[in-house]
Amino acid sequence: MTTQSSQTDAVLAPSTRAQASGIVIALSSALMFALSGPFAKSLMESGWSPGAAVLVRIAGAAVVLLVPTLMLMRGRWGTLRRSGGIVALYGVVAIAGAQVGFFNAVSYMSVGVALLIEYLAPVLLVGLVWVRTRRRPGVLTIGGTVVAVLGMVLVLDLTGAQTVHPLGVAWALLAAVSLATYFVLGTRISDDLPPLVLAGGGLLVGTVVVAVCGVFGLLPLAFSTTDVAMFGSEMSWLVPLLVLVLVSTVAAYVTGIIATARLGTRLASFVGLSEVVFAVLASWLLLAELPGPLQLLGGVGILAGVIMVRADTYAPAPREEKAPG
User: Fold this and answer.
1) Residue 5 domain-assigned?
2) C-alpha torsion 69→74→76→78, nearest 10
3) How far apart are CA 168 and CA 33, in angstroms?
4) Which partner for 312 in 39, 76, 141, 285 could form a disulfide, CB atoms 3.0-4.6 Å apart?
5) Which DSSP letter does residue 186 get?
6) Distance between CA 78 and CA 46 in Å, rounded?
């Protein structure tokens, strides 16, 4: 009981010394993840299917991390076997589940609605911590959750009639659960399971899962070698592909795992919301998609929600009554 309680406290209240660097690393990870949108969009506009972009993205990252992962685990295969379940769960749910869930949701509804549902993951985490620890979120956490979600709505700029399909909602909720799992499993790194091993092993497992989904038609696979349009000019398709693999996947996942281990699931998940703000800015700079005033206001709302959650504390857990005798 004492060990479980200390682990829970480590997730909810990481040391102050690690938080400053953790927030910087988390923001860097969010920025690198955000770059995947504009670069992937340039590939899809040149003939790539979303499934093909996802498969090459995570497969390429798995290949890049394969050698350093093997070197890191040399002589420590016993620890990898003991952590095999975590690595497999990370690859199947946190990586493949998020990708498959989101792209299938998009096939039933607009991208904006699907993305909004997926980014309810921090709200799910607040509820999960409440249930697991019986420690009620404070007023600032609840208020920060509401402000962050409202900010997300403004950033996504959901205008006009939106079609919501039940199957689309189900797929998007799968993506949200997968994203929440990504934050939870990120706290499991240790000397026995370094961030590089969790990321490399998870990407390898995720590649197999996405490839199987492609074979069975869940994710259509269409590739192209046509030049892409970015920065107002034509360039080789290899440029956005390399950015997707090296920056938005390898570097983003490794730094994201490190940040989650330092910040805990609750704070890391809310800082991760800044990915949407970075995505808007990246689309503006790379694809000339200028964000509107409401989107900028929404970005402020997301940051305000993160600050509110960061400043809050959890209520004490209810004390158990001691049995007579």
Assistant:
1) no
2) 90
3) 23
4) 141
5) G
6) 45
